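Handout, tutorial session.
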Amino acid sequence: MRTEGRELELVVLSAAPLADPSLAIAASRAGGLGVLDLTYVRNERVATDAIARLAKYGTGRCGIKLDGSDESFLEALTDELPDAFTTAILSPADAGRLPGQVHALRRRDLRILLEAISVEEARLGEEVGVHGLIAKGHEAGGRVGEESTSILLQRLVGETKLPVFAQGGIGLHTAAACHVAGAAGVVLDAQLLLTRESLLPEETKATIRRMDGSETTCVGAELGEAVRVYARPNLSGVEDLRNASRALSQDGKARAEVVDAWREEVRTRIGWESRNGVWPIAQDAAFSSALAERFQTVGGVLGAVREAVESHVRTARAIRPLDEGSPLARSHGTRYPIVQGPMTRVSDRPAFAARVAEAGGLPFLALALLRGPEVETLLEETARTLADRPWGVGILGFVPLDLREEQLEVIRSYRPAFALIAGGRPDQALSLEREGIPTYLHVPSPGLLELFLESGARRFVFEGQECGGHVGPRSSFVLWNTMIETVLQSLSPEELGDLHVLFAGGIHDARSASMVGAAAAPLADHGAKVGALLGTAYLFTNEAVESGAVVKGMQDVAARCESTVLLESGPGHSTRCALTPYATTFERERQRLIAERRSEEELRDTLEDMNLGRLRVATKGVARHPAYGRDPEAPKLTTVSEEEQEAEGMYMLGQVAALRGASLPMADLHRDVAVGSSELLADLVEPARPDLRVRREEQPSDVAIVGMGCLLPKASDLETYWQNIEAKVDAVTEVPADRWDVRRYFDPDPKAPDKTYSRWGGFLDEVPFDPLRYGIPPSSMRSIEPLQLLTLEVVREALRDAGYAERDFPRERASVVLGVGGGVADLGQHYALRSGLPLVLDEVPESVLSQLPEWTEDSFPGILLNVAAGRVANRFDFGGVNYTVDAACASSLAAVQLAARELEAGTSDMVIAGGADTVQNPFGYLAFSKTQALSPTGRCRTFDEEAGIAGPGSLRARST
């Protein structure tokens, strides 16, 4: 059954703990849900002021986010919540208080979304009657759990009937992934910190602008409630939090008391000050710089997200990038675009590789630390077993040089179809490529990807932190979104055709694979070959046990796995494992060494020594015989009991283990990932868009002015104009001599024929104009009224001020309405004079004609006032209506009124509205003088009995 188009709700959180609603206001005006995040605020007056501002200036949906650990504050703020607020997001403190808080919020007729960092919290929320859940992943900022957004979203969508929103790692590409996974919406916060509405300190913004997703860390994990914050060297606030967390973990108090105390510790240190504040910032802050640069405003980003989700879904449905027989599958010579990732102590059985190949995937052997003779035995048997079916080898780029050379010598001898290097360099890959062995590189960061692309590498693995074993710092969503964007920015469409990309981290079924298909749609659309690399999912296959890749005990532990943990032996060296007795032992020893203030090197060496042999115990159920090497009769390995295996083994499992609970045939796994994901995408339709038109009886012209530009006397831009106002600058001058000779026309007697009694007015300074910027041939300039050219400049300035100069927006629904009055300007009058001279002179002297413009094909459109709007629409590629209106001195106001009606009617999404008048010639002065409309002193006295205007003329434009 096809899923009907549903709107992906966009939720925007304000920049906690600022208590500033600017981002939320902008979101509500742009069709999203603007939420004031008061998680870290405890000043009731500050909070209520911010609530009032959001209610006053937000024109759409508004919400509030509150911390459940402070019930009195929660009650005080929600008792008198304005009607504009429809949603409350609750960060739960403990199970005992949650039912009462939910009941109180429901009585206030609020939709309640529970922030859930775990499945347990989500289940509790469903029990107490919340209306929806926010799957807040490990990569998000502030309070987080262990599971990433991708994994938690999949779990909650599969377990609950409630709407689920995704928070953490949401970018243009991963938002589409969330939509196809079944998310009701996505939550944006750190992604918007550099938009024009953000009021963060400039020094803080400068730091955020440089982020790539690796600059954050989690503190407080030992309390069961980690907090993700920005971590830089010598940041005392973060270290204070670590110390507070360790102290609380040994306090012995009830969990509710510990959580309250921990949140208070966090609250006292959270802040955006550049030097001492602890920033509750997500990994996806890495997206903020590019989003702000391209789309400028909150509204621009929300529009871009909606457009990206639509286009990604449309493209993924059409291309089906992971389907059977896809471009990557054909390139690999396999049935499916699926690669079995090399797993140490698992991918070392030729029989297992054969079963992967038989099921339509591409198997890889894990050479790890095997010496040359061991590698030769393994490759010889694999080549014989798989015959002409493709297979590959996975090697480590950071092993000792002599070991790597041993391995490479054997690899060159057997020439597998593919190679994959973890921790490698482009030169290592290109060396194998020259041997005729296409080689993939694991790339953990966008900076390295740029270097690898420049070096000519074109095969990559993007593996997120959800994977089992050694992992990098970025979650799949953060890594995938960043890498997709980096590739699109670095390679031309032609170069993208050579790209092969394997996505890894949390992929195991149709839903997770469809997320990859949607996120990677732009790559596939440009010819890149896209596939999925699976690891942990294979441990659930029947063939993994049957082939001896793992023992049944390993699969049983995987089936029972509810959560995984990271075992950190040192900075940047973490291993994801199942939460088993050994994981607890490891963490206990780690905390002991930290308490003893051991050095990082000593810490790493001790913990790595602990890990030796533990993986083999888990996967194969064997351990090194204690007498081996001393007793010549003792075997190298000995079988351990099931109890010993589970107690002593280190089970390298990815987070997908929590999503699966039973074994299955490998063919079913492959078909679900490839064909199942394609069928799921085919059943989707593009998401519905919200109706952004706002209609309120009390606000008949409810529109926003988002940008302005001007050219005025003594003010060539808005900033100068405002400074002139503040400084009371008088911009009225006498008619400049280079404009026209006022002495020929001036007479103080208002009744003097053919004379003006005013010699004052407002005149523009010279304005540099580049005709080529607007596609105007320089030769046409003399035939175009300056009013039209100046209007182009002012419109460009208004678009720049609105943030639309360098970003995409729906130009086909942008219109132009200009108020243009004052009659024919200088150039038009000169043409009129030239055409009228033969009426009064039989022979017009050439000396006179030479002073007047000649008629050309550009002359007529060049002097028509109504062409000003058309020229703007043409040069800026606007597809809406364009016209001018003449209401005399009210022309610009009439243009604004008509622009507002365009917006209210929904026939335009944006309107350039403004006024333009450059009639400052003798004709204008004489016309106004004879109606006695000019001031005899050159000074405007609007409400005086001798009121008059100083002189005609000005240009203004607004982007409405």
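The second record follows below. Compare its token runs with those of the first.
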Amino acid sequence: MYIKYDALNRYEQPQLTLCNPGSVYSTTDGTLNNIVGIFNTVDDFEAVYNFNAISEINFTLPYPDKDNCEECEIDMYKAVQNRRLIFVDDVGYFLISNVEDVYSNGLQTKSVSAQSCEAEIQNKKVPYIADGTYRFLTNPLTPQNKGILNTLVESLPMWTVDHIDASVASKFRTFEDVSEDLNILGFMLENLQDAYECIFTFNCITRTISVYDQDNYVNKTDIHITKDDVINSLNITENADDLYTAITVLGDENITINAVNPMGTNTIYNFDQYIDWMAEDLRDRVTSWKEDIEDVEEDYLDLNLEYYTKLEERSNIQQDIDVIDTQINMYSRCRDNIVASSGFTYVEEYNAVIAALGGDEVEIDIVGISTTAQTTVPISVDKSTFVKNVGKSFYGDKVFKYTSGVWKDENNADVVLTDYGITFQGTPVANDTITVTRTPKEIADVFDTIDLKIINLQNQKTDKQDDLSELDVELQELNEDISDIRNSVNILKRFIDVNVSTTSLTISGLTIDRDDFESAVDDDFFDTLTFTYNGTSETWIRQDSMDVGEDLNDYGIDYSGSPTNGDTISVSRNRDSLDELMNYIYEGSYTDEYVVITDVMTYSDRFDQMKILYDRAKIQLKKISSPTQQFSVDSENFIFAKEFEEWTSQLETGCLINVELDRDDVAELFLTNITVNYEDCNLSLTFGNRFNRFDTKALFEDVLGNISKSSNSISFIKDQIYPIKSGEFDQVKEAIQNSRDITMGMALSANTEEVVIDGSGYTGKSKNENGEYDPHQVKIIGKSMVFTDDAWETCKTAVGLFQYTNPDTLDVESRYGINAEVLIGDVILGRNLVIYNSDGQELFSAVDGKITSSVSAESERLTNDYVERISTVQEENDGLRKRINIITSGNENDDTTNTVNHVETTTGFTFDENGLKINKSTDEIENLINNRGMYITRTTDDEEILRADVDGVNALNLTSRKYLIVGDYSRFENFNNGTDSRRTACYFIDN
């Protein structure tokens, strides 16, 4: 935020300029065009700056005093109308959205509201976007495939694209049924930001659009707001209106997640917000159920993928069988037709069908070629083309003769050999002759050929049917495994209780397997089920159905002992736990239209999309299963004070500000709103989520999560403000571990990796969304492992055997080790550790336990000398203190210091032969400390305020807030005799 100050360091209200639509700011000379006029006076000027949303300004415009104004001021007042622009200095254009004329108590004013010029984008409709997959930004190599942002910006003639993060520009996403009733701004902020996981920012001065990856958009500041200094009030508002613990998930075209959700449904749950509220038994069940869901997710996905892959394989085999059956039918019908017609009249028609099915045609004739050409050249004929052109009923010889430079048939008509499927290579000469003979097979021979084809197809069918039977068995087993997982985490069955009791004393060891019982009764059964033993028939009778001969094992019931007539076993199932859980279920729905499945996708591709939908839904549920929180701070109006100019220049929506929320709890909060009243000098800040450097996207989530859960996310800020505990550098330790954890997470979550193993070794690489291979790859051979980030143009890290130049001998040597850009670790062990700079100069070495710094011979000499000079650390009677006894070396020429004659800092400190002077050009006080004393001077009139030297202390004004002690025995202080407090008493001090 930019605030101007006058010569007396008082802030100046921003200048407001009224412009016509189409006004443009020149970045060259800072001028505006299409100006209507400049406002001289506005009242109650307030600005509301929002992040990732339209901002607004409001002010009141008084009607000019007719007796003391010029006509142009009245014209200016009348010119304030909707759709005109207001340019706010150093902020940008605002589009007037509302003007209200007010006449009250003899005063006429206009109340004006204006929206930041993103409103121009909001006023434009989304152009036609055909269904398809779009790159975010047009690829210069394929400009014919227009990026979706380019398509939108073409409809915004005054707006241009500024910065686009490369990671966003190359992303592809699929869009279907994009409504042309949407406005472009809404489509950008709602659809594109979600689909491409990016952030849009708009420059309202230059009308430019920039886009950042949510992982990269971090704008830190040095601003530190505390309760003692700046915060007037801090409000944390919690809203549970849109809180859900269960959502039903769908993708585009009703894509479901039941094949990747272990419960086998399209509903997922998250009870984290209420887990501490639940009764202990229910809490334990929910925790166990959640852990079981997480444990079986991968197995459930793999089983379903294998199931549907085999199902696809079964479908293909069944389709092959259907084709074989059709071919057998065609061959049989062809054979019957030959018998009925005693000829081959309709064979070609059957062959056309058989060929379309991929089968072998029935061969009914033999085509041969002979030639009398004087030059031996290759000659071939395509039988189907030949038969087609001479007629299906033609049998005999067809003769072609080369005469007068052309080929002629037996009727002396010109012909083109290729029309008859004849290929003739070489140069023919006069009277060259080609004879093509077509002789039909015997009907018996054709029958033998057809019968053989039918037998081969029947054998193929038998093999296919065997494969089908094997697949059916495998599918049944997979389906059972899938059902077992679903049953194990079924939310209905996990939160009901099955109880068993008996009225007989002769039955002991009574147990029940709940899963068996569940499968034997209806899912909606919750009453008591009773079995009575009939001693006469020695069978159990189920009382509700009066069926005789029930096998209790079918219900999972087992017992020991011998039942007697009338013994009763009762099994009850109640849903008390489920009813309790239902109190914490708040249902909603979630549709993600960016997850698309197409007909050309394999089952593996489809499952990848379902898994993406499932994972995205879990992220959304995690957000909306916790109440929304918003931090609002009313602070001192520091932006209007010149002393805080450094802070003010960093203040803008979307930045991170350090805010003290509680004792020992300083959070980096994401600033979403700044409200400034320039007339009352009031400042209000609204913040969104806390910053988590390992989850930057969390800044842009609508739901912020519980404060206590994120209190450790800003530990590195606390380490800067509060002392490091226990002498341990938590920041470095945490950074090392987090580096490992992030790398591990990336490896475990990878799902686009490809592996190639061939003569060159093992190569690991992955494909990007655009189908191109990522340049970050790894190769492993027998002696080393190598990493690259530019597709093998260069090597970034090598582990194993590699060559290097020894800095001492300059010889090329081969050794096993690590050659990398960065090395991070807790401990570095080595008997011989040497560190060189880029010039090959030894900087540091640790050989055989001795540490040596080799920056220069001089620094080594000084180091050794200082080590010898440190003598003792001893304990003395007057307390524990460290005393360093410097032992001189006796060398008069020994210079162990580098003399510094002058030190000057940007903070106003100067240390030279005159002493230590403290003064900045803007300060009214100058401090000087030297070997003669301490002096404080007021710079405006050079008057000495305080002097302390050998003569004593001389002060301009000296205030003692409690006691003034003179010498060893006198003390002056305020005195109150009960009626008059305006007295001073002198006391004698008796030690």
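Points raised in discussion: Confidence is low (pLDDT under 50) at residues 690-697, 702-751, 855-898.
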